[in-house]
Amino acid sequence: GAVVSQHPSRVICKSGTSVKIECRSLDFQATTMFWYRQFPKKSLMLMATSNEGSKATYEQGVEKDKFLINHASLTLSTLTVTSAHPEDSSFYICSARAAGPGTEAFFGQGTRLTVV
Amino acid sequence: AQTVTQSQPEMSVQEAETVTLSCTYDTSENNYYLFWYKQPPSRQMILVIRQEAYKQQNATENRFSVNFQKAAKSFSLKISDSQLGDTAMYFCASTDSWGKLQFGAGTQVVVTP
User: How far separated are the first and last CA of chain B, in Å rounded?
Assistant: First the structure.
């Protein structure tokens, strides 16, 4: 199957700083990428949907000024957690889809963010 | 809006036995797709099986099969001949016409020797 690479896999940052997470589709062009947040032993919560070259669409309750999403190319989307606080600590996962809604969405390996 | 409900937090099954995971969903879409994903301890999400809502035939992938009851909005997953490597969290999901995946709460499957 297609490969989606997410980097870094783990990051620790100080409270108040910003951290950027990258999501790359390595062998296909991803017209749409999704960002999820997952709490321990919980399901994936969709944060936002990004389409190449346009602004991301955020789910209700997700602060777009805190979670900045950029989808600058068909193979790269980034999530920047700005002014991170301990409550932002979580597991973040991206996924990418090449074509229509019925096609498989490929997932990155996830990023464990710890804010201290 | 879509909702996906998984009512079994955890299921235990012995090796070589069969286990069935339940999933119900609700959607206002006419055209939608249903999926089962597994998330092993590595936390990498892996597609197990996919069902197109307009197809009546139940999807099958090796030891994994679904029972899709469209009128009842039910989409259960059967794992046959369970193997230790099947131990994982299993998520049922639906997608709308925009491609947004809505996940259920998940069912932890534990396969014991």
Answer: 41
> What are the respective helix, strand and coil percentages of chain A, to the nearest 5?
5, 50, 45
The shortest C-alpha distance from A108 to chain B (Å) reads: 7
Q: What is the largest CA-CA distance in chain A?
A: 40
CB contact under 8 A, A101 and B33: yes
Please check whether residue A110 is in contact with residue A10, taking contact to mean a CB–CB distance below 8 angstroms: no
CA nearest to B35, candidates B82, B80, B100, B110: B100
Residue A103 pLDDT level (bands cut at 50, 70, 90):
confident
> Encoding tokens for residue A2?
């297609």
Tell me the one-letter amino acid at A75.
T
**Residue numbers in B near A94 (CB within 8 A):** none
CA angle A97, A100, A101 (to 5 degrees): 80
Confidence (pLDDT) at A101: 66
Which amino acid is residue B5, in one-letter code?
T
Q: B2's torsion region: left (phi>0), alpha (psi -120 to 50) or beta? A: beta
* Span A61-96, pLDDT tens digits: 999 999 999 988 889 999 999 999 999 999 999 999
Phi, psi of B84 (to 5 degrees): -55, -35
Cβ–Cβ of B96/A107 closer than 8 Å?
no
Q: Report the 10 Å Cβ neighbour count for A55.
A: 12
DSSP helix/strand/coil, B84 = helix
d(CA B77, CA A38): 23
